[in-house]
Amino acid sequence: MGMAALGNRLYTGESSYDFVGKRKLWFLIALACVAVSALLLVKPGLTFGIEFEGGSQFRVTGSTDQEAAREAVESVVPGAVPEVTQVGGNGVRVQTEAVSTAQLDEIRQSLAERTGVPLESVTSSTVGPSWGADVTNKALTALVIFFVLVSVIMALYFRTWTMALAAMAALVHDLAITAGVYALIGFEVTPATVIGFLTILGYSLYDTVVVFDKVRENTAEAFAKRNRTFAQAANLAVNQTVVRSVNTTVVALLPVAAILFIGDLLLGAGTLRDISLALFVGTLVGAYSSIFVATPLLVALRSREAGVRALDAEVREGARGTAPAGGATAAAAGGAA
Questions:
Q1: Is 187 helix (H, G, I), strand (E, B) or coil?
Q2: In 43-160, which ranges are continuous DSSP H helix?
Q3: Which of 51, 63, 173, 263 is deepest in the core (most CB within 10 A)?
Q4: Between β-strands 91-96 and 55-61, what pairing exists: parallel, antiparallel or unpaired?
Q5: Residue 245's beta-bridge partner residues?
Q6: What percent of the chain has pLDDT over 70?
């Protein structure tokens, strides 16, 4: 069965997967992933780039000899532990703790001599600790403002705080797991990473809003016609949008995977891996949370409301009342025969 045919069957209700009914399982998986991510953030923890921690950075163009670059720094600053990475196909980047102006010039000269490039091909820059702290504060402020604005807009758009709360929980889930993957792999957290985090949060939110729009439509119809429980209406909404979410995720992952795996691993474009890893992991996790976390959590939050409980009781009572009537008719027909 093709995706189009499966999508039509799910949309019309001919086929259905019980996403909402198995919400306890999805919650356990989500909590386990977040807990593991939290442990990874403690140990080994995130590796922050020079923009956040401060330090000195050197860029050598025309040579990819990483060992020579490392020896050049150690010859000027004994005991230093420089971080050397290849940038593109003809350069290396060297990051170390902040050094004095005199040492900066000496390291440039040493890098030029040991890697065999002109002095003009070696550039340097220094980021002070105060500037790095300022970048950190602004990044955290951006995340806080994002969450506050999204919460307000979601509450106003859907006219209920439960949808906003469920969407925020899904966003925290996505952010925590993506950060945990960063800690596990050891990639540097740079301003590009923060941009990637904000991007995936926006993508995840977009996917969640699409599902919630269908949930609102189906549940409004359920309240009007009294033909489905709240959970059944919400589960139908997830089934109706799951194929669209999968297709959108696959299309979004293709260019990101090309940047991450081909650009970084094959072409050596290391400067792109910070944002591409965040986008790749966040897009996958965002698709999962919009289907398996956001809507099931919404159902769990609203299942205690008086109106929802009354609807569920009425629908179940109607279902129980229909079955005996059918059985009595069948029995009467058998007796007449």
A1: coil
A2: 50-53, 66-76, 101-115, 129-158
A3: 173
A4: antiparallel
A5: none
A6: 88
For residue 320, what are the contacts with CB-CB under 8 A and spacing of at least 6?
none
As given in the structure block, the two tokens for residue 239 are 């089934």
CA distances, 156 to each of 4, 153, 206 (Å): 34, 5, 16
As a whole number of angstroms, the distance between CA 194 and CA 278 comes to: 9
**What is the amino acid identity at position 123?**
T
| Contact residues for 4 (Cβ-Cβ < 8 A; gap 6+) | none
Contact 19, 235 (CB under 8 A): yes
| Residue 176: how many other CB atoms lie within 10 Å | 20
Instruction: Kindly report the number of other CB atoms within 10 A of residue 238's CB atom.
Output: 26
Residue with tokens 């990101």: 256
Task: Name the E strands within 81-204.
Answer: 83-86, 91-96, 122-127, 188-189
pLDDT at 97 over 80: yes
Count of other CB atoms within 10 angstroms of residue 38: 13
Separation of alpha carbons 246 and 10, rounded Å? 13
Helix locations, 258-272, DSSP H: none
- Return the closest-CA partner of residue 182 out of 52, 289, 190: 190
Strands 188-189 and 47-48: parallel
This prediction has a pTM of: 0.77
Residue recorded with tokens 């069957």: 9
pLDDT tens digit sequence for 30-88: 999 999 999 999 988 887 877 777 788 898 988 888 899 999 999 888 888 888 877 76
Which one-letter amino acid corresponds to residue 296?
P
Tokens standing for residue 115: 């890697």
- CA gap 200, 197 in Å, rounded: 5
CA distance 55 to 94: 11
pLDDT given for residue 131 in this prediction: 67
Residue 94: strand pairing partners: 58, 84
SS3 43: coil
Map out the domains of the chain with their CATH numbers.
10-48+131-317 (1.20.1640.10), 55-127 (3.30.70.600)
For residue 83, the cross-strand partners are 95
Q: What angle do CA 236, 237, 242 make, to 5 degrees?
A: 100
